[in-house]
Specification:
The chain is mainly alpha-helical. It folds into two domains: about 50 residues; about 90 residues, Type I PLP-dependent aspartate aminotransferase-like (Major domain) (Aspartate Aminotransferase, domain 2, 3-Layer(aba) Sandwich), CATH 3.40.640.10. It is built from five helices and three strands. It has a three-stranded parallel β-sheet with strand order 2-1-3, with helices on both faces. Helix 3 packs parallel to helix 4. The longest helix is centred in the first third of the chain and has 21 residues. The protein is globular, with a radius of gyration of 19 Å. The termini are far apart.
């Protein structure tokens, strides 16, 4: 049997399961606790944060752990919009973003934000020209997923960083 539904539930690699098993048996403290078990968990969490940051070529203080994608989407979308509202209330996303992004954008619209939804082509890809045209002086957030979780389209996300 070939399993094609890896959108949200991919089987973990054996080495990941082995690592999880070892860690869950030896480092089970609350990383926010002050006792030795908590300190051990905190140190492992920070080590993991640094490794992930190194892989992504970012600073460790830019890595946050959440309970899942929906929480992360809500947190970053609403948090960024509210934090940057003094600079503008225009937000941009795509017509094919995750529902958590769309729901956050719709909630922000009720708070007076203006949201532009970029159209996509037959393959689910945005046009960089459409994105450039949508950006305004009051744009404070552009949310474009790197790879679509439903159809696998890879967006040209490196290009927007250049303008």
């Amino acid at each position: 049997m070939i399993y094609f539904d890896n959108s949200a539930t991919t089987q973990a690699l054996p080495e990941v399961v082995d690592t999880y098993d070892k860690v869950s048996k030896s480092v089970w403290g609350n990383p926010s606790s002050l006792h030795n078990f908590g300190e051990q968990a905190f140190n492992l969490l920070e080590q993991s944060r640094k490794q992930i940051a190194d892989l992504l070529h970012v600073h460790a203080d830019e890595i946050y752990f959440t309970s899942g994608g929906t929480e992360g989407d809500n947190w970053v979308t609403k948090g960024t919009a509210i934090q940057k509202r003094e600079f503008g209330k225009h937000l941009i996303t795509t017509a094919v973003e995750h529902p958590a992004i769309h729901n956050s954008m719709e909630q922000l619209k009720k708070l007076g934000y203006d949201v532009t939804y970029l159209p996509v082509d037959d393959e689910g890809r945005i046009s960089i020209d459409d994105l450039k045209s949508a950006i305004r002086p009051d744009t404070t957030l552009v949310s474009i997923m790197a790879v679509n979780n439903e159809i696998g389209t890879i967006q040209p996300i490196k290009q927007p960083r250049r303008f």
